[in-house]
Amino acid sequence: RPVCVWFRDDLRLADNPALAAANASGASVVAFYVLDEESDGIRRLGGASKWWLHHALASLRDDLQAAGADLLLFRGPARMVLERLRTALEPAAVFWNRRYDAAGVAVDSEVKADLKSAGVRAESFNAALLYEPWTVKTAAGQPMKVFTPFWKAARATGAPPSPLPAPRALPGLEVNRRSLGALALDDLRLLPTRPDWAGGLRATWTPSESGARERLRSFLNEGLRGYGAGRDRPDQDHTSRLSPYLRFGQVSPRQVWHAAEHAAAEGQAPGDDLAKFQAELGWREFSYHLLFHHPDLARRNFQPKFDAFPWRSDSAQARAWSRGLTGYPIVDAGLRQLWATGWMHNRVRMITASFLIKHLLLDWRIGEDWFWDTLVDADPASNAASWQWVAGSGADAAPYFRIFNPILQGERFDPEGAYVRRFVPELARVPAAFVHKPWAARADVLAQAGVTLGETYPAPIVDHEGARSRALEALREITPT
Ligand code: FAD
After folding, report:
1. What pLDDT score was predicted for residue 479?
2. How many domains does the chain have?
3. In angstroms, what is the span from residue 243 Cα to ligand 1's centroid?
4. How far is 343 from 422, CA to CA, in rounded Å?
5. pLDDT of 327-349, one tens digit each?
6. Residue 357 is part of which domain span?
7. Is 458 in the same domain as 395?
8. 434 and 371 in a common domain
9. pTM to 2 decimal places
């Protein structure tokens, strides 16, 4: 009887405990993936994530085939697919790696119960986190709500285990795909058709396990040293850009953690750069901790007082924001980077999110949805937790009254305007002194740079000072004096 491995957000061969356990069993291995958009509460993937998933599945299939196994693809409610596989293949066991969103956990519990009652061994493993949500607690045994004590308590539980090697050979099993209802990858219809908006994504990313390895290697060689200071500069290339690989599990946090430790030990970067990078991995862990203990994180304000916040409704401004047409260059550059490449630098994510929430006074969930649809790393935990962090409604959030000034942020973190020039080419020739505030330049300076505000580039859709006062006024409505 074969052993089945259910792939989900762990699309890799190396450091994959479910796959390693199946291989160690000595039985033949049947690997499968289910695109489930129907089970209760499951959030459908956004367009950019689907694009990534398509390529991640293609490369996983190739890697599995090279090792001797295959990847079966299905669509539909996971519980039904698993039942079909169980009756057709009569496996001895089904293994998978755990997920932490409420809908996913619920499906997994049902599947586990179904399999057990049919006498099939079902076992799950941790492949996605350094510290699973229930292993880190306050002294009183409660979930954590503040990052610094969370991270301290997590670290105190011990070093993350070393990663497992990829299996060299996998004993596959010939199966009748047709009778199982297995689909071809194209039948999952994950790629955009018309219009094909994915050209920029194709030019930017290699969404495979080997692409992840290469990205990690080049980050450790070129980005880790100086990461602490460089990570805030969107005009530089200091961050790892591993987020989509971590999101889809093409690299594990344990692999990243240990590779970074090793690089620092070899003298490739000082300890404080390493610690800063590891703390960012810690924010990912913290986000999962929050999601697990607060399953509605993407929809409900963590702090209920924000339920009464007087959000505006303004679809024209929401659209201008999403298209990068606000008239604030750093904001527009960020949103255009997102649209063109499926990714945005963290500093600019904070600036653009703050702008939507505080300058435009639009509900953070509008931004969360847009990022969910357009990011290749759209993550159920990090996206929701980060949006709530910026909104001030989250756990351990930035206070609402801290309002990013998009001009000063641009001048500080993109001093020459290189980032703006790259993603907002119509401002490419504006002198550095005005590239973050073109409206402040004299008409002849703008004319020389080929810019006509309101024509070639938008005039600001809100006035910064006015918007700032309006945001603070709105906050007073939910803050008793
Ligand atoms: P690096 O700086 O190289 O960090 C390494 C890894 O640590 C990242 O790949 C990521 O997995 C993790 N990480 C870093 N910063 C954070 C953070 N603040 N919170 C959680 N994890 C972090 N990250 C996502 O992975 N998916 C999202 O959907 C997402 N949405 C965000 C929305 C907003 C409004 C904001 C402000 C941040 C969001 N982030 C999200 C967090 C962060 O911006 C990205 O993880 C980071 O920019 C990814 O780039 P990197 O891989 O080069 O990061």
Report:
1. 83
2. 3
3. 6
4. 14
5. 999 999 999 999 999 999 999 99
6. 304-476
7. yes
8. yes
9. 0.98
